[in-house]
Amino acid sequence: MRHLEALLDFYLASGVDASLGEDVVDWFQLSEVQAKARQQSATPQAAAQPVAAPGQNVSQQVRQVSPQNQSPSQPRPTQAAPAVGAGTRSPTDHGAIPDQAVISTARELASSTGSLADLRACLEAFDGCNLKRTAKSLVFADGNPDARVMLIGEAPGRDEDLQGKPFVGRSGQLLDRMLTAIGLDRSRVYIANTVPWRPPGNRTPTPQETEICRPFIQRQIELVNPDVVVFLGAASAKTLLGVQDGIRKMRGRWMTYPVAGRQVAALATYHPAYLLRSPLEKRLSWRDFLSVKSKLSELG
């Protein structure tokens, strides 16, 4: 049994936490299809046609590698990809390179939105973050946009990706209980993440991915305009506050976050997912949530 548990832990650590499809795929045969597609791109006059893998259409298998299905702005498979930072590809291309041009475009798009509905529509149309290609859903937000308290995590997990809402898995259930303990619920708070798409295998978002998404969460905070911001975990606090302290040093200490020309009270606390792994730390998070309740009373 311990061997099986160790194997499952290995799979989870490697990002294998969900089935990628219901149909069996012969990856060896699929490799042959891709090899033939590359040959065709090198010799366009070739008459040979790729062989479809069992249960799949040939056009589906070679869609990403066939030169006939690529836009002029995308390099052919036989060409070297442009270097990161070269800025040679449009920020809206699929597989966008996270260079400064993409980040600048994200800032411009986010700042141009005038409502949360506009911001959501902007994110749904935005293709500058590669995480969108592997995620099932845009996980925009949950709760009341007029709430006085806004809670911000790092990125969605598997359950959140499936349902399209933040904090709906086990960590979300714990968060709900923590909110109830101080007289709050999802109808009285607003919940979002710094990154709105699930990274593959629940890995940590890269600095480039976080930087691309940062203008959108910043604009989201401005549009909600809360009285209190609670950062769930160090990642969201570091991204938005620009601090480098670890969560143990940071948590429980009131800071400020600039929103629409005013300084909003901000507090970092442990992420609920961490509390599930380290239940003894719940007592510290309880103190933090009591502090949030006191701050709301203090602010009136």
Automatic annotation (TrEMBL):
One Pfam family assigned to this protein is UDG
Q: Name one GO molecular function term.
A: uracil DNA N-glycosylase activity
Q: Where is the composition biased (Low complexity)?
A: 41-77
Q: What keywords were assigned to this record?
A: 4Fe-4S, DNA damage, DNA repair, Hydrolase, Iron, Iron-sulfur, Metal-binding
Name the source's superkingdom. Bacteria
- Please indicate if the UniProt record lists Hydrolase as a keyword: yes
Domain Uracil-DNA glycosylase-like, by residue range, is 140-290
Q: Where is this region: Disordered?
A: 41-96
Q: Which GO terms describe its biological process?
A: DNA repair
Q: Which InterPro entries has this protein been placed in?
A: UDG_Type-4/5 (IPR051536), Ura-DNA_glyco_family4 (IPR005273), Uracil-DNA_glycosylase-like (IPR005122), Uracil-DNA_glycosylase-like_sf (IPR036895)
Coiled coil ranges: none
Catalyzed reactions per annotation: Hydrolyzes single-stranded DNA or mismatched double-stranded DNA and polynucleotides, releasing free uracil
Which EC numbers characterise this protein's activity in its record? 3.2.2.27
Is Metal-binding among this UniProt entry's keywords? yes
Tell me the protein family, please.
Belongs to the uracil-DNA glycosylase (UDG) superfamily. Type 4 (UDGa) family.
Q: What is this protein called?
A: Type-4 uracil-DNA glycosylase
Which species does the entry assign this protein to?
A: Roseibium alexandrii (strain DSM 17067 / NCIMB 14079 / DFL-11) (Labrenzia alexandrii)
Record lineage? Bacteria, Pseudomonadati, Pseudomonadota, Alphaproteobacteria, Hyphomicrobiales
